Amino acid sequence: MKRRDFLKSTAVFISGAAVSLSSLELLDPQEVLAANPDLRWGFLVDTYKCVGFCVKACKIENDIPLEADVTRTWVERYVITKDGKVNMDSPKGALNGYTSKLIDQNESGMKKIPDADITQAFFVPKLCNQCSNPVCVQVCPVGATYQTADGVVLVDRTWCIGCGYCIMGCPYGVRFFHPVANVADKCTFCYHRISKGDNTACAQACPFGARRVGNLRDPNDPVAKAVLDQRIGVLRDEYGTKPNAYYIGLSKEVH
Amino acid sequence: MVEQLAQVVVHGQAWTVKDLFVLPNEYVYWSIQIVLYPYMTGLVAGAFVLSSLYHVFGVEKLKEIARFALVFSFALLPVAMLPLMLHLMQPMRGINVLMTPHFTSAISAFGIVFLAYTCIVAAEIWFVYREFIVSSVVRLGAKSDRSFYENTLFFIYKLISLGAMDVSPEALKADHKAIKILAGLGIPVASFLHGYAGFIFGSVKANALWMTPLMPVIFICSAIVSGIALCIVCYYVFMELRKWAAKRGKNYFLPDAIAHGSSAVDYEHLRSVQEHEVKMTSKYLLIFMTLALTLEILDMIFRGYTAVKSWDILRNVLLERDFTNIFVLQYGVGNFLPFIMLLIPGVTVRRAALASMLVLFGVFMMRWNVVIGGQAFSLTFHGFMDYSMPIIPRDIESFKEGLGGALLVGIAPFVIFYFLNMIFPAFMVDKEEAPH
Question: Of A118, B164, B416, B433, which is most buried, counting CB atoms within 10 Å of its CB?
Fold first, then answer.
């Protein structure tokens, strides 16, 4: 057989085999599960109960240096005065809780608001919304950020190139560069804990049960129940990301 | 462990100044290198489009600058990638974009588009210079006492001739056809290369300033503007250098003089060519400037008129915090002033070059105002961030994302061009037209 003929028949064989093999579909158990999942992680925040206590637990559990000014979860403080003005802050993400009445305005300094002027004040914890339509997964150029079959978005620290596109793309500002690993990082609902049946670090640390993780597909799950039978809100749904962190008592000032 | 890490500085913290209510994780993550990335790709694309005006549309008046623009575009190409590499937190993994491209991401196509574009420009240069390469191989090969420099050149020319030594009229005709096809193919690819740099920004729905479908078009127009302006400025400067060198017989600045002998380069001829090309090109600059400006202003008016939720904070950024950057530096000094300078009759070479320099500055400010301005306000719409560019580097990060990194990216294309010009004389005049 001549070399030319050999190459020719090899090419014909490979293309022929490729066409017929392509009709066979390989079944991936994970894909099957994803198409019909009985588990979808969601989060419930009761803003009436929040006092801003959970950030340190999260940082310790997830190895985010305490003094580094980035955080997987944070608590915002809202102070609304009689003139309708909304004052907000979150110094160090409320790592040490709120012990001062002064509002941290960064470069503009500390702002003092007389108690008599305040009409209402409350705390709102924020964390990754584990969106059903996550922007961060869409924009990652190398696929280092991905969504698990049970709905949690994770980052592959060995593959992230650190371009920051996911950080820019997230409408909630939950992403940041991990100061030690130098890759994108974010809240995972403590995936390493919840997938073993444990609670998230923040929910466990919260003394008032303001934070709760649960399975949205289980009708008996307290989180799923609350989502169904209470008046709840989600953050920034105008971006079409379909967030899965639900807030009881979400005020219009919060977004 | 906590004590050890007490001094951890987060990426972005060194140059971000926060004011009012900004989320804890928000910083100016995309800084000077990401300003330079669209700026450099814009220059690449613009220079290429300028060269194509001659090669595809047969604008004879741009013949001389077209050749220069093509070679310069090739010199700019590797530098368009440099800011991205400098910006990555994990630069060694940059290749992952090619290895596992995730095609829902706008960035993932970069590697492919960029490589395709590189191939097109390289191939076009090869066809444009093939005759010259062959003649150089013949000329240097005939020489018995070659210097080290000539030996190196001989080796390079022999290598890049790829063994295609046929310079018969039919072969040259085929070359011209190939050039035309490649230049024609290059225009959409160059536009795509840059338009999609605009898409990278325009598709970020979380960013109120960036998200507009006009972004890619605005980017393409400003790319062509900046590319043409850079070609005018560089053509002017390099021709001044050549005139200076031709007067004093400094042939190391004149690769074509080395190739064809000193008679090929004549001072008076250089002057007339320079004047003609610069004036002609500046007319095309005006056309594209009008287009770019119209789109940019349309975008701003539209935002103000529709005044959606984000307009309050955008108005604050555009009309107050960044007013000097946008309206004084970008539109005033970078657009309006050069526009007037080019419109006033009796354009001289110097005035055109100066106006082009201002245009280059204006486009740079536009990139700055888009990239940095887009991060000037918080996602909460209740706070602001400022980027204070690190001037004196304290560590590798503040070098990369500061003045040092910017200068590195700014200087690199000229260094590359110097060497590229040695191999492909960008100012070469076709032999039959050379003055006798």
Answer: B416
